[in-house]
Amino acid sequence: MPSFEDILRVHHLQRMELHAWIEHRWVRPRTGADGPTFDEVDEARIALIRELRQELLVSDDALEVVLPLLDQLYATRRLLKRMEAAFATLPQGMREQLMAKLETDDPG
Amino acid sequence: MRDPYEVLGVAKDAEMKDIKKAYRKLARALHPDLRPGDKPAEERFKDVTAAYEFLSDETKKAAYDRGEIDATGAPKAERRFYRDYAESGPGTRYADPGEFYYDAAGSDMFAELFRGARRDARKLRGADIRQRVEVDFLDAVNGAQRELVLPEGRRLKVTIPAGTTDGQALRLKGQGGISPGGGPSGDLHLEIAVRPHPMFTRKDNDILAELPVTLGEALLGGKIEVPTVDGPVSMTVPKGSNTGTRLRVRGKGVPGPGGGRGDHYVTLKVMLPDPPDAELTRLIETWTADHYYRVR
């Protein structure tokens, strides 16, 4: 698994930057024997944060807002996926009833 | 690849800072991690990024502007986005409860959903049952009682209301499947297929039929008996009727929903005696000799 130094090199980051991101808990690597180790989800998240800041000029203050919102969005989507899987195990008749309800019910 | 200027929506002579600005605006709107599940946005994002990268390369941009190369570049390896991880197991790492990060699985929302689900399970209706029922033409017109055998073996008497049409759906509330949780039963949906009748056809609430008459009945008129959906009725054929003459028997059609009734229409069809009658043939021979009439 890539170490702190590997990440700096691969993603062209300054030491200070990555430290700050971990400090802010934007990135949450696991702690190994020789310091933090990063797995695929961490790397993808680092790439996203780098892109938001450098390419799309999202400021650090805005990131404080954006990242928790994104985490909420993904948490909701994970939940939806679990519900989808649970839904698939229901008998056909119940699925049809649920579908009919979802199509007609206005939550407002 | 399409024209990179067009992809970014900028003029051919746009300055680099405007190209950059256009790219940022599009990328913010289309970034796949900000729009999970939106496939078209992802495709456009890739186009926009490729176009921007192409124009960011001064050598390529200059060559393209001079018309020396087209916009195709070497394909790049598929990028794995954050969302590819965030929507599955690994993503839960970024949803610790207790942090200010939010975790739907640990939140009120989940508990609320399942509380709702259990409540609904108790109340859940039984399944709806759909069944096709064939009925005779006259039963559909006049109404009838039918005994059905439902899929689970249950027998049920149903009333086919008078005036039922082919393809009509009848809903019998609460006659469907039984609820597992003791809630209300489902509904029984019957789809009615009406068998055709050898004599009658139906048009809205009217009945149409062909009525064979003898040469004498057509020519001389008289009272004849007409079969209707209501049984035989007596009707007067006017003198000088012909094949194709349409007559109406009022109120002998299909009962309408409002209590009224359609009419019975007959179209006369003059039948010659079969086998031919020798006397009639001789009569017509004599008559035809000096009585030609045009029919074509």
Q: Report the CATH C-level class of the largest domain in chain B.
A: Mainly Beta
The portion of residues forming beta strands of chain B comes to 15-25%
Greatest interface (CB-CB under 8 A), with counts per chain? A-B, 35 and 41 residues
Give the fraction of residues assigned to helices of chain A. 55-70%
Biggest sheet: strand arrangement of chain B: 6-7-11-10
Low-confidence spans of chain A: none
Please work out how many helical segments of chain B DSSP would assign.
9
Q: How do the helices and strands follow one another from N- to C-terminus of chain B?
A: HHHHHHEHEEEEEEHEEEEH
Main sheet specs of chain A: 2 strands, antiparallel
Please give the alpha-carbon distance between the first and last residues of chain A: 48 Å
**Helix count, DSSP H or I runs of 4 or more residues of chain A:** 5
In words, what does this structure look like?
The complex is a heterodimer of chains A (108) and B (296). Chain A has five helices and two strands. Chain A has helices spanning 4-10, 15-23, 40-55, 60-88, 92-104; strands spanning 30-32, 35-37. In chain A, strands 1-2 form a two-stranded antiparallel sheet. In chain A, strand 1 (30-32) and strand 2 (35-37) form a beta hairpin. The termini of chain A are far apart. By secondary structure, chain B is of the alpha+beta class. Chain B has four domains: 4-86, Helix Hairpins, CATH 1.10.287; 95-123, no CATH class; 129-194, HSP40/DNAj peptide-binding domain, CATH 2.60.260.20; 200-289, HSP40/DNAj peptide-binding domain, CATH 2.60.260. In chain B, strand 8 and strand 9 (231-237) form a beta hairpin. Chain A binds chain B through residues 25, 28, 39-42, 44-45, 47-48, 51-52, 55-58, 68, 70-79, 81-83, 91, 93-94, 96-97, and chain B through 24, 27-28, 31, 33-34, 36-37, 80-88, 90-96, 99-105, 107, 109-110, 113, 124-125, 127-128, 177, 186.
